[in-house]
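The record is passed on directly below:
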Amino acid sequence: MKFERYQQFVTVKAEASEIFTEDLNRAIYDLRGKNPVVQFSETDPLCAYVSFTERYQSPESLSDEYELQGVKFTCEMCPMFSPIMKRNGTPDERLKYGDCPESEFGRTYKDTKACDKLYQQLRDGRVKLVSTDEEEEE
């Protein structure tokens, strides 16, 4: 994901001091999450400039595109991920890693961000999502 920042400005100007104060306070409040900085005009006492920072994210991969839509998967959620098994055939829950044919060394951590291969399979329809209720009725 590529993150960029750029500076923007808002000019607040009014004819009456009460309106100016209200407009300026509203602008600062509306921009509260964008680090607003106020600079008053040297020539006009009822004019101020509010600078603020806009943030922009641009996807650099397929997984980034999904993440911008709020969809995030980890390796553990991928069908290619194989947990390490105990001798009795059950997954060893003590281990935080498992096998993955797509991983550089054949192993990956469960909570690692899923690679683009999973997202490509989702897009192509080769992997389908299934919703399950954790509190299933028996």
The chain has a mean pLDDT of 92. Helices lie at 17-30, 62-68, 116-124. The chain has three helices and six strands. The two ends are 43 Å apart (CA to CA).
